[in-house]
Amino acid sequence: MKGLLIVGAGGFARETAQAARAAHGPDAVLGHLDDDPARHGTEVDGAPVLGGSELVHAHPDAPVVVCVGNPRDWAGRARLVRRLALPEQRYGTVVHPTAAVADSASLGPGSVLLAHCALTAAVRVGAHAAVMPQVVLTHDDVVGDFATIASGVRLGGGVEVGVGAYLGAGALVREGLSVGAWSQLGLGALLLQDLPAGEVWIGSPARKLRAVPEPVLGELLHLSGARGTARDTADERMALPDRRSTQLRGLSRPRGGAAHQ
Question: What would the pLDDT profile of 56-79 be if each residue is shown by its tens digit?
């Protein structure tokens, strides 16, 4: 597949472009779209910045991935996806050719798996999730929509990561735990108990640093479709549809299975 539109032109977007090229060659990426006018008409690692994000509507046949967000604003991807209001079938899923993805794993539309990730058995990754290099997701893990799993994270079996959660680089999560919706786990943290929705935890063992302010959490829950602002709503958005989008590693994959490398 060729002609991918990457919304964003920062670090994650550039990494995604490299993954797409590694899988499909130099013509895999049509270009970047970025809402910073100063970037328009420039190039990022050899790929043009064509204009603002609204140009996704001017290229109706191009697959799209939204690659924005950072630890200081980890809801940016959800906001942009909501604003663009594209049908689900417009979104591609980018998988670096070095990623090891089990046939029993499933990936939602718009998600990105970068180099040397491992999804071992019956792992479910939702829509618009970002899985960075060297991440290990073991049997029966569930990663919610819009979650970010930073480089080097390891999840034990049966872990549930809520919608919009952000797991910092090198974090470790014990088997069977849950990481709540729109929570954040600090880099290098060791999580030995459930992390409630809308809280920030750090350290080894991880402990609560602070809560996400109620007005901010209310916006986040609204973005994910959750009801109310209570911090115990993580399970409300954990259910992931069994879906398969058009892939950017090889041919389209069958529903419920991953393509072989």
Answer: 999 999 999 999 988 788 788 999
3-state secondary structure of 179: strand
Report d(CA 92, CA 128) in Å as an integer. Answer: 10
Q: Which of 177, 180, 179, 178 minimizes the C-alpha distance to 233?
A: 180
CATH (residue range 4-68): 3.40.50.20
Tell me which residue has tokens 């849950």.
178
Surface-to-core class of residue 250, CB atoms within 10 Å of its CB (0-12 exposed, 13-18 middle, 19+ buried): middle
Pairing of strands 199-202, 184-185: parallel
Question: Based on the number of CB atoms within 10 Å of its own CB, is 11 exposed (0-12), middle (13-18) or buried (19 or more)?
Answer: exposed
Token pair 């899985």 is found at: 131
pTM to 2 decimals? 0.85
CATH number of 94-237: 2.160.10.10
Q: Taking a C-beta distance cutoff of 8 angstroms, is the pair 155, 173 a contact?
A: yes
